[in-house]
Amino acid sequence: MLMRMFVCACMQTAIAFSVPLTEEEESVVKKHPPKRLRMLEGQQSPPLTHEMLLEKMADAENRRQQILSQRIESAKTLMRPRYNSANKMNADDALVEDADKVGDEDS
């Protein structure tokens, strides 16, 4: 390992760097990997087969269709006309007025 010393002129302190001369020496990260990488190494998943991929794709398509049907149902409920008491009263008044007109035409 090659050691170099540099002196910083502004602070008057020395800084040391370790530079490996060969690539045989492993890095510190490879010697002591972070916890999340160690956990991932411990998990062994089975190799993917063509059938497994097709099954996963079919499941994803089913989920997409379910979401789409939920959105369609939601849109249908939003498109339904809503009757509040004011609209209902106006509709009733229109029916009464129409009945009066029919009665006037008969006489």
Question: What are the defining features of this structure?
Answer:
single chain, 107 residues, alpha+beta, two-stranded antiparallel ribbon, 4 helices, 60% helix, elongated
Fold topology:
Elements: E1 2-8, E2 13-19, H1 28-31, H2 35-42, H3 50-79, H4 85-106
Antiparallel strand pairs: 1-2
InterPro entries: FAME
Signal peptide: 1-16
Pfam families: DUF4619
Brief digest:
The chain has helices spanning 28-31, 35-42, 50-79, 85-106, and strands at residues 2-8, 13-19.
How is this structure best described in words?
- There is one protein chain.
- 60% of the residues lie in helices and 13% in strands.
- By secondary structure, it is an alpha+beta fold.
- The protein has a domain at 49-79.
- Strands 1-2 form a two-stranded antiparallel sheet.
- Strand 1 (2-8) and strand 2 form a beta hairpin.
- It is elongated, with a radius of gyration of 39 Å.
- The N and C termini lie far apart (117 Å).
- The mean pLDDT is 75.
